Amino acid sequence: MDLTHRQEQILEIVKKHGPITGEKIADELNLTRATLRPDLAILTMAGFLDARPRVGYFYTGKTGSELLTDKIKKLSVRDYHSVPVVVNDQANAYDAITTMFLEDVGTLFVVDQHGILVGVLSRKDLLRTSMGQQDLTEVPVHIIMTRLPKIKICQKDDLLIDASIKLIENQIDALPVVQNKDKGLEVIGRLTKTNITKAFVELVKNEDV
Question: Where are the transmembrane segments (predicted)?
């Protein structure tokens, strides 16, 4: 976030005299409190300043990069996951390949008749199967999928940074977003590297960062 000259002046005043009221900041700059109100609001929302009733403004002591890091650490999966693309565990490899192509995804989540997660299919799984001599319409996906508990998952209340670390450390393209049900884990979303990239780009472009 690029600060205006006046906002930089406000920060310097608060660093030197804080905690300090808005009226006193205005006096230091020979301006009215009303004139400074938008600048103080921006600096407070961006995290450079904090304010306490009847005390005034004080400097948080954080740099722009530290503030950005704080914001990243507060992002949750619930705000950025997308709709899951699933196939039934009784589907065959040919159907799975068709679904992956039509939906333009790199990972399919395999569910049973109750919508409960039982496996994950990647491009590599389907490519490996298609290189064999067998008829793909005769190969059920439950034979070639990765099964629980080897599947990496996340939940909607997880931090986005934690889910990102799972993707990187396990070298996978997507995580199923799940919620606990009596019968097992219900798939309610998917979190991909694209979702995470969009989240970080959106955060950096946000004018309040």
Answer: none
